[in-house]
Design brief:
Two copies of one chain form a homodimer. The first copy, chain A, is of the alpha+beta class. Chain A folds into three domains: 195 residues, Jelly Rolls (Sandwich), CATH 2.60.120.650; 66 residues, Malonyl-Coenzyme A Acyl Carrier Protein, domain 2; 77 residues, Malonyl-Coenzyme A Acyl Carrier Protein, domain 2, CATH 3.40.366.30. The first copy, chain A, is 26% helix and 26% strand. Chain A is built from ten helices and 19 strands. In chain A, the strands form five sheets. Chain A has an eight-stranded antiparallel beta sheet with strand order 1-11-6-13-5-4-2-3, covered by helices on one side. A three-stranded antiparallel beta sheet of chain A has the order 10-7-12, with no helix packed on it. Chain A has a three-stranded antiparallel beta sheet with strand order 18-14-19. Bound molecules: 2-oxoglutaric acid (2 copies) and cobalt (II) ion (2 copies). The site of one cobalt (II) ion has 3 residues of chain B, from loops. Chains A, B: One of its GO terms (cellular component) is ribosome. Chains A, B: It comes from Gilliamella apicola. Chains A, B: Keywords: Dioxygenase, Iron, Metal-binding, Oxidoreductase, Ribonucleoprotein, Ribosomal protein.
Chain lengths: 370, 370
């Protein structure tokens, strides 16, 4: 009973992706909410799950972080509950991200779900990610403005960064099965009309700053021997206090060479980009299985399930999962990526069994309990 | 009564600089030690001054860091006292680095002075810097080996990294006024014959790792707005788990663009490379002078002295001192670099006075007390 997305991806990518916002009407026909408000409220009671309640009562914005014990004081209007990375914790909700798996997976962040009462929303704001907002039950009015680096942003509350008034280029109500796509940087504001649920499938990329600083840390840890600037062709400079242009170029070249080193860069990026952006539902096996035990369980017919939304990427002839290199040939990696369920016959050779034993003990795959 | 260096710089740079070690005999004719062992021992009693005593008694290496209170237990042989950055603290000793000021100043580290008794030395080792070792009073036997990345290094003591046996390509005794030049990476060992003093003028460069990590920190602090990876030309990939080669190139390009940005790079490098490598003799003015006071003192004829070995560099049309930008025109900066003593007539215009007031209050220049 998964929802089916109908979208002309070529048209969408050509005309909208990271270019402009759009409403895709009825993209999920006969949309069925994969989660109920009560289930969402239940998830927000868990310590490991990131959640927020935002209220706007009498024009005053307030925001609180979960976990939450009780919702009874919140009344009927002007509050909403937002839960991050629901795809990590709720199997049926996670099916909503499936149709978006055609987009480069290294850019996928999570499925955020919000339940809103009449008049509620998080206020006008700008995000650092691209988002597909799928409307579930109920209806919301969305106003989206154009991209503009000069918008002033301000804290409506210490946990709510809002944006000043903007002229909407989209101002419409959306209902179950409609999608609003908003690229990074476009201001937007959604206000619930009655009770509603909406599902934000988010894609986040890396900033130059994060890239440089993450890579620098990696290089420090992984190239212990210093590569020193050397200039055996030095001529006496006319002004020894002046750093010469060619010296600056040489210094920059040294840094750029590190980045251009594919072994260094790829290994770093693979590990870096597969680190979880939100807590995963990972439970290491304790005590760890040994190889015999592991093989026996598999032979008895138990199947291995991959932890929902654990990050995997392939780069060149290798692959990474959750910050680790996967030391397996590409054909096995392809299998691990494609199949969310694995069984013994697929994993029989010794190398695969040993690697999978490690990943199962780490909790990246687990045996189905049924 | 400064010592005079005679050296054919063109020949030296062409044949030896960062290429191979050499002994320059009698480079300082009639060399006069600018400091006595007693004065050196006195400096090593100061908290702010880095010093070490290394002993090798009965084949056992030991090393201790200063400050030192007493030397009387050390005996007559097999110990030496090494004091770092003496150019920061002892005017006459500092004159020894003057003749080396033709070498790019951004690479200069410090003047290290060692006093050694009969048989003493720090043992065979490899350094991460280029050094001119000027022999003062007494005599040392130096054995220098060839460069080789495969030498094994080991801790002869937790503070002494030694290198395994090597075949000497230089094995000679040097006496007062001789210079031994050793480029980075060549193993060397000096053993004192009788009592001796030696003066190490060191040049240190930046490693790729330091460069990248320092610049990354700067970028994080100075480019608060994230520059996000964007790919509006995205086509659906055949394998969404695979990071495509062009995506990796784009990611690297983003990082490289930061490095190639001259405003960012130059400002960072100027600040970074002028940070002190060893504590400076800086005493901020307390309470700070105000402009009137400052101008009056200058007008009364007092002269300003620059703190010895405070780091200054010029990059393009600006300059940096001790981690700060100098907001003055280049002709004033040239003056500040060339003259170690400044007087009122040179500093009269308002901008210069204001900037110098700030630097004097920070302790970068000080009034001569005489
Ligand atoms: O669901 C909401 O109220 C806010 C959604 C939103 O702004 C987003 O996903 O970027
Ligand atoms: O003075 C000494 O004993 C050691 C000098 C030395 O090895 C150096 O300056 O690199
Ligand atoms: Co948003
Ligand atoms: Co040395």
């Amino acid at each position: 009973m998964s929802n089916k997305l109908t979208i002309d991806w070529d048209d969408f990518l050509t005309n909208y992706w990271q270019k402009k916002p759009v409403i895709l009407r009825d993209a999920f026909s006969n949309f069925i909410d994969p989660i109920s408000p009560e289930e969402l409220a239940g998830l927000a009671m868990e310590e490991e799950i990131e959640s927020r309640i935002v209220t706007n009562k009498n024009g005053i914005w307030d925001a609180n972080y979960g976990p939450f014990i009780d919702y009874s004081h919140l009344g009927e209007e002007n509050w909403s509950l937002l839960v991050q990375a629901v795809d990590h914790w709720h199997k049926q909700a996670a099916t909503l991200v499936e149709p978006f798996k055609c987009i480069p997976q290294w850019q996928f962040e999570d499925l955020m779900i919000s339940y809103a009462t009449q008049g509620a929303g998080v206020g006008p704001h700008i995000d650092n990610y691209d988002v597909f907002i799928i409307q579930g039950k109920g209806c919301r009015r969305w106003q989206v403005g154009d991209r503009n680096p000069n918008y002033k942003q301000f804290s409506a509350h210490k946990a709510l960064l809002h944006v000043e008034d903007y002229l909407p280029i989209i101002d419409e109500e959306i209902t179950a099965g409609d999608i609003l796509y908003i690229p990074i940087g476009f201001p937007h504001n959604g206000v619930s009309i009655g009770e509603s649920l909406s599902y934000s499938v988010g894609f986040r990329t890396q900033t130059s700053q994060e890239l440089l600083s993450g890579f620098a840390d990696y290089v420090i840890d992984n190239l212990p021997n210093g590569i020193f600037y050397q200039d055996p062709d030095l001529k006496l400079p006319s002004d020894p206090y002046r750093i010469q242009p060619y010296e600056l170029e040489k210094l920059k070249g040294q840094m750029i060479d590190l980045i251009k080193n594919p072994a260094l860069f790829n290994d770093w990026f693979g590990k870096h980009i597969t680190m979880p952006m939100h807590e995963l539902n990972i439970i290491p096996v304790d005590p760890a299985y040994d190889l015999d035990e592991f093989e026996e369980i598999l032979q008895s017919g138990a199947e291995l399930y991959r932890v929902p939304s654990i990050r995997i990427v392939k780069i060149d002839d290798t692959a990474y999962i959750n910050g680790n290199k996967i030391p397996l040939p590409m054909e096995t990696i392809d299998l691990l990526c494609e199949s969310e369920v694995l069984y013994y016959e697929q994993l029989q050779d010794e190398q695969t069994l040993n690697v999978m034993l490690e990943f199962v003990n780490l909790g990246y795959w687990y045996f189905d309990e049924e």
